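Sat 14:20. Reprocessing the chain from the morning session after the first attempt stalled halfway. Input below, unchanged.
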Amino acid sequence: MQPLIEVNKLVKKFDTLVAVENLSFSVYQGDVYGFLGQNGAGKSTTLRMLLSLILPSSGSIRLFGEELTPNHKSILNRVGAVIERPDLYKYLTAIENLRIFARMSGVRPSHRLLMDQLEMVGLAERANSKVATYSQGMKQRLGIAVALVHNPDLVILDEPTNGLDPQGIADMRNLILRLSREFQKTVVVSSHLLTEIEQIATRMIILDKGKKMMEGSVADYFQPASNKVHLGVTNPEKAIELLKKEPWGLQVELSREELIVSLASHQVPALNRYLVEQGVEIQSIRSVNSLEAYFLSLTSGNQHVAAFTN
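Finished this time. Tokens:
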């Protein structure tokens, strides 16, 4: 299968600073491709080169099988992007913003199609509200609607959850998954948050100081069976007893008033339901896998943990 994006030995220098060094990777149709790296790792610089916003110092970029530099206008018509925070007209309504950006892209969609775009990102009910009244999460979702207004094949999102509260992060995660699964878009998304990339990406790359540390399938690198599930419960003694016997037969650790079990990701909802049905109230549940440990094994050490987990 020919990649939608094919990057080969890409380098970007700013005077003496090497922001991206000898970077190669491929993105295929249908991927939700995660760019994972702390701030300053080279993620945004790479994405800007993919969009011809800055030029590489050396190396090559191919989009849809074509070299980017000589044909970038026709190629980029097939790409939608939100880099950092979207630029929107704050004192116009959402649908007015969409209409203006559509015309800038050379398309004149009907009112119905514009409303469909807003429905896709969960903003149809606020179509006639001024953007100045929107929350940051709503602005981010409107920015994605703008990026989709010309129906691109490839969507590039740079740190789309920055500045969002937990509900906004969940909404953005669900929107990205919907773009991939329902609308068959190929999505490239960058983040410094380990858990976000793990939950949405099918394939990923880890960057550190402008260099590729790994690239591959999330499922292959981070096996669900290695998950440690941390449970906060109202009755730990009863929960331990239930988890140790059939149908679960789990080994249970107790740490800082949390129960810890090893469990595959797909079994977590069933475990949650089982404990609730048995009268054990779940106060918290979180899954911790080997992603953090794997990242630390590739990069320069523990000083990166805070940047990736906060």
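The longest strand covers residues 17-27.
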